[in-house]
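Chapter summary example: a protein plus S-adenosylmethionine.
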Amino acid sequence: MAATTEPTVDAQNAAAAAATAAADANKKKKSKKTVADNSKYAGIENVLPVKLKWSNTKGRHIVAAKDIPAGTLVTVEKAAASIVRNQSFVNICHHCFKPVTIKTQTRPKLDAQGNQVAGQVEKVNVPTHSCTTCKMAAYCSEACQQSHAAEHQVQCAALAEVNSISAAHRVSPESLRSVLALIGRRSVDKSSNRSEIPEFTDNASTAKPTPFACVMDLNPNRHYIEREALKEIQAALKEIIALVPDSAKISLPEAVELHCIFSTNQHQLVVNNQQVLAVYPTTALFFHHSCSPNCVYIGETNGAMYVRTMVDVSADTDLNISYVEICQPREQRRRDLLLTRHFWCKCRRCSTLLSKSVDRFMDGIQCTSCKNGVMIFEETKEVQDINELMTDISALDKEIQGKYAECESCPAKIEVTKLVDVLKAAITDYGIAHQTLQKGDLDQGRYQLEKFIKDYEDKHILSPFNAYLVNTYITLMRVCTQMGSIDRAIRYNGVVIQRLEGIEGAVPSSYPRLVEYHMSLADMCLKQAKKKASNRTPLGRSTTRKYLNEAKSSFEAAYKGRSVIYGENSPRALEAKRLLEEAKREYNAYSKSFEKKPKKQPAAAAPAVATQAQEQTSASA
Ligand SMILES: C[S@@+](CC[C@H](N)C(=O)[O-])C[C@H]1O[C@@H](n2cnc3c(N)ncnc32)[C@H](O)[C@@H]1O
């Protein structure tokens, strides 16, 4: 008989007890997260109407300290580190983000491989002030270059090689520059013995960069990088740090950590119409993401960031911002967040049943039976293991196999895979139209976009609020403006606003994109009304009046929205206010020009004159 390896009852009990104890310990470990110490950041509570909090479920977060109205400033922060994006690289100062001046230089002509072509020269535009060693950092002035010298000095040699290192390892140059920017901040903070405690202010012009020490409080979310990609990142960073002077040198694991921290916590800002990426530790630590945010962040001209409430907020309510574009379907937002921020969104909007959420319209496909309701498929899978999803995002697609979607207003059902086919066909057609536009064929592109509307909206296939349809109108509005078809552009702009405002709760009235659509509509209407004012036919009259009315109400909406987002006395709000006044004046002047001139009432002594005049007329007759 073979020797038995069966455990005794005692051993079994002991093993079971050990397993239970381990599970309990594990549970305790999971439920007892270390309480984060917010004291380093507590100074913000003295300057702005906010309170910093920590909870087991949310971690660090920030709430309103009292009831605050829309447009209240809740954070001002200057980035710990920032980089100018590739497309804006030579346009703005790498220190203060002001536009740089450009000079034309003559240099030996280079062929496609970068070799000099004998005897030939070419003219190139270069910034007036730039680092002559690395030829990478551009500045607006000598003074700015000097102010940036300590930070730049530790980056210079590596910056010169960033593009070649990036190409050799297929790692984005922006991510390598971001690590260098953080090394620069660390080095300057260290050499100046700077306090690790951030100083808070309510004014961007007095804000100081958040200390490097706060960057290290951020979550690097390291798990998101695939093994192969990580190897390339490590190889690239090894070459980068080899070029950093000893005084600022960091280890390879530290460099990888900084790479992950920047990438998963960065904010993209538009500063002086150019693109900047930056890390704002206080904002990144405390403001959670929501797909229905109550706050909005904007870049100031010096690269500081303001966060303001977009709606009225009551005391103790969480303050949140959106890390992604909110005018897109739930699935798309969640995927974007997964890929860029490395978490699965559990905000209130994403956690609400689709049938009860505004999201049902955003990727809505209409019911072919009743042509009224949209088809609903409730996703039941809760993503627990983010690592699993990161390594296999197709798990989301497998979820729909064999499932049915139901119409919200009639008993019709359809396989979800069939709905996906409809959506895929729409996405293909949408993509074709956009490719045509990218090739520069505006006429054909416009034709294809208008056909998209006929095929998918007029035939009741997509919900009118479907994000692809709304985006089609947005593109049409831009194409028509470019082609000079302003009346059409106005019509499409109006549809965009009506769609975005049409789904209650999807987009706040002060959402920056919506506010700017009001501004562009008002602007076009005012200009077009001025052009058409000379046409005094009944049709010309009613069009001019309609445009002037539209200009007034849209400038009003833009002024309100810009006051909330940028502040009441900001140049952008004041620009909208000035144009609103102009539209009102134009409207009044135009209306007045149609007022019937009162017939001259004969004065008391006039009858004799009138009679005289009449007599004269009849005499001459
Ligand atoms: C604002 S920090 C949160 C603070 C951090 N947990 C702490 O205590 O230090 C950002 C992180 O919170 C989580 N988070 C923020 N918004 C979220 C959302 N809507 N759904 C799920 N997780 C979210 C993500 O893990 C994200 O990386």
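Key point: Residues 1-31, 606-621 have pLDDT under 50 and may be disordered.
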